[in-house]
Automatic annotation (TrEMBL):
Pfam families: 2-Hacid_dh, 2-Hacid_dh_C. GO terms for molecular function: NAD binding; oxidoreductase activity, acting on the CH-OH group of donors, NAD or NADP as acceptor. This is Hydroxyacid dehydrogenase. Belongs to the D-isomer specific 2-hydroxyacid dehydrogenase family. CDD domains: GDH_like_1. The keyword Oxidoreductase applies. The lineage of its organism: Bacteria, Bacillati, Bacillota, Clostridia, Lachnospirales. The keyword NAD applies. Residues 17-312 form the D-isomer specific 2-hydroxyacid dehydrogenase catalytic domain. It comes from Candidatus Lachnoclostridium stercoripullorum. SUPFAM superfamilies: Formate/glycerate dehydrogenase catalytic domain-like (SSF52283), NAD(P)-binding Rossmann-fold domains (SSF51735).
Length: 314
């Protein structure tokens, strides 16, 4: 059985390989590529003999999947799989397992880092200190007592909701599946957008969520509201959000995800929009989360080899 780790997984090379050897049976031959490439031919060359491929957020298109003739299992070191040609995987009977849960704490941390930065004007405060100025014009807001909307109550959404409650927020939620969670009030999306001071997005990207937050829905938000997106970039209409920010229809935004992976084009509308905290898709990227992720990757492989696959994506 051959495993190809087709790109770096964010853990030091020696440590990653040691983790793999300790977790996997001796019968597994491990090939590790510690450079990231994107061209189809090279990816096929790397994976052509693999029974199992471990991949993070590197796009694996239909040609790559078809070119890896022996492929039986994809261990995706990520929560979402929208970068994988899932239709071809289903067509070929390839098992795809994700790493749900590894970044719950990491993403929640970033959400509140962004909110505090926006609410307390931290970027402007830093400039004021460096320019010899005072707090004039920089009086901020508290989280306590604010209405906090969570769109999508999977594991990450629920983690964010719990932290919001700890801050003393009133938590509202919109999700395809409602859950009985103390302190969380489920409402429809339009009500959540109209009522909440903070809206944090935690939905997967699919046909139902692409463009979910568009101009019409942004118009329903309060002028003092902030929008946080750490889910997937295309869930939000970026041009509409930039217009809403520049015209004062909403007060601010924290954006970790865009239509594509960084580097983000210099002319992207959100990079010059008012009151935006922008980060280069770092929500999942903590030392602790990346180790957790590698543990889940190798555990997924072990379970699949034993005939009891877990974290299987349909």
């Amino acid at each position: 059985m051959k495993l190809v780790i087709i790109e770096p997984l964010g853990v030091e090379d020696e440590k990653l390989l040691q983790m793999a050897k300790e977790a996997l049976p001796e019968s597994v031959e491990i090939t590790y590529y510690n450079t990231r490439v994107t061209d189809t031919d090279t990816l096929i060359e790397r994976g052509k003999d693999a029974d199992i491929i471990a991949v993070s957020n590197l796009p694996l298109n239909a040609d790559v999947i078809r070119g890896c003739a022996n492929l039986k299992m994809l261990a995706v070191a990520f929560t979402g799989v929208d970068h994988i040609a899932m239709d071809v995987c289903r067509e070929r009977g390839i098992t795809v397992c994700n790493c749900s849960g590894y970044s719950n704490a990491a993403v929640a941390d970033l959400v509140f880092g962004m909110i505090v930065a926006l609410y307390r004007n931290l970027p402007a405060c830093g400039q004021a200190v460096r320019n010899g100025k005072t707090k004039d014009g920089l009086i901020g807001f508290e989280l306590e007592g604010k209405k906090f909307g969570v769109v999508g109550t999977g594991a990450i959404g629920l983690k964010v909701a719990a932290v919001a409650q700890a801050f003393g927020c009133q938590v509202y939620a919109y999700s395809r599946t409602k859950k009985e969670i103390p302190g969380i009030t489920y409402v429809d999306l339009d009500t959540l957008l109209a009522e909440c001071d903070i809206v944090s997005l935690h939905t997967p990207l699919n046909d139902g969520t692409r463009g979910l937050i568009n101009g019409e829905r942004l118009a329903k938000m309060k002028p003092n509201a902030v929008l946080i997106n750490t889910s997937r970039g295309p869930v939000v209409d970026s041009a509409a959000l930039a217009e809403a920010l520049n015209s004062g229809k909403i007060a601010g935004a924290g954006i970790d995800v865009f239509e594509g992976e960084p580097p983000i084009p210099a002319d992207h509308p959100l990079l010059t929009a008012k009151n935006v905290i922008a980060t280069p898709h770092i929500g999942f990227a903590t030392k602790e989360a990346l180790v957790k992720r590698a543990v889940i990757v190798f555990d997924n492989i072990v379970k699949w080899m034993a005939g009891t696959p877990q974290n299987v994506m349909k």
